[in-house]
């Protein structure tokens, strides 16, 4: 623990807790006394952890690690609850819990949205992760702009991350001033007021592929994938096959 020693005389009595553990959770009281008055304030400290949703070969996995209190996981498909056998969280030596749940997924024709809800045992916090099973498919001509959709709507807080394979196109924080335009892989990238991302004048076949826009908030994680194909205007070489037919008449072989 530590305090801002150079700011105490200015009235800043804040206390810093470093490397917080589960044992540090609870209600803290800060009491100050000066010649004119005595004051006290209370702060409630809760310990949260990490959540993650990811695709596996045999289904979609939702996991949470290093959390407190004990978590539980539930699933819905297009808003309909999916019953799966619950698993018990694993507790480590620090008193933190980890839990993993995998939902088997079969190939389907319709668009499905899988929602994983992670809630604490005391119901004080809930985390939701959504993953659409379908991929948006877009085909454009060489040199055109394209708009990549991201989860959510205008006015929501949170962070956007757009990736192309293992490359990060853009990391956007709505609470921090961002440049209007950035450069990525030789093209210009812009974020619209609605949270969508515009890629300007795709001029290379290197820009064709699957883009993943991920939105993070304190309570949720959502993904939208867009597959982009670029028509280059190239044509296959024209080939002319000439078939010569020769007719032989009254030919005798000896």
Automatic annotation (TrEMBL):
Residues 60-129, 132-229 form the Ig-like domain. Gene3D superfamilies: Immunoglobulins. Keywords: Immunoglobulin domain, Membrane. One of its GO terms (biological process) is T cell receptor signaling pathway. One of its GO terms (molecular function) is signaling receptor binding. It is found in: Membrane. Its main location: membrane. GO terms for cellular component: external side of plasma membrane. This is HERV-H LTR-associating 2b, tandem duplicate 2. It comes from Pygocentrus nattereri. The lineage of its organism: Eukaryota, Metazoa, Chordata, Craniata, Vertebrata.
């Amino acid at each position: 623990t530590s305090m801002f020693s150079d700011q105490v005389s200015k009235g800043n009595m804040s206390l810093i807790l470093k490397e917080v553990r589960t044992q540090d959770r609870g209600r803290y009281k800060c009491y100050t006394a000066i010649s004119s008055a005595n004051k006290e304030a209370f702060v409630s400290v809760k310990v949260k952890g990490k959540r993650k949703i990811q695709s596996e070969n045999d289904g979609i996995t939702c996991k949470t690690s290093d959390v407190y209190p004990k978590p539980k996981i539930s699933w819905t498909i297009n808003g309909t609850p999916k019953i799966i056998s619950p698993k018990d969280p694993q507790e480590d030596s620090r008193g933190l819990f980890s839990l993993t749940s995998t939902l088997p997924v079969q190939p389907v024709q319709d668009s499905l949205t899988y929602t994983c809800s992670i809630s604490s045992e005391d119901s004080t916090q809930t985390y939701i992760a959504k993953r659409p099973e379908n991929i948006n498919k877009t085909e454009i001509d060489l040199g055109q702009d394209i708009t990549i959709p991201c989860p959510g709507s205008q006015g929501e807080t949170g962070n956007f991350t757009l990736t192309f394979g293992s490359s990060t196109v853009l990391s956007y924080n709505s609470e921090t001033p961002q440049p209007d335009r950035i450069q990525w892989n030789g093209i210009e990238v812009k974020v619209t007021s609605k949270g969508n991302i515009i890629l300007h004048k795709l001029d290379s076949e290197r820009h064709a592929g699957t883009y993943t826009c991920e939105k993070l908030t304190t309570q949720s994680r959502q993904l939208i994938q867009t597959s982009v194909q670029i028509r280059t205007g190239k044509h296959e070489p024209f080939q002319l096959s000439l078939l010569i037919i020769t007719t032989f008449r009254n030919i005798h072989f000896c």
